[in-house]
Amino acid sequence: MELGIILVLFILLVIIAQIFCSSERDNYESSNARDFIVFNQTNFNLTTTKLDGEFESPVPRPHTIYPGHGYSFTVVTKYLQHSNASAYYNIISLPDVLIVGAIHITFKEYTDPVGRSNPSTSVNFYGPINPENGDTWVTIR
Question: Which end of the chain, N or C, is less packed with Cβ atoms under 10 Å?
Answer without folding.
Answer: N
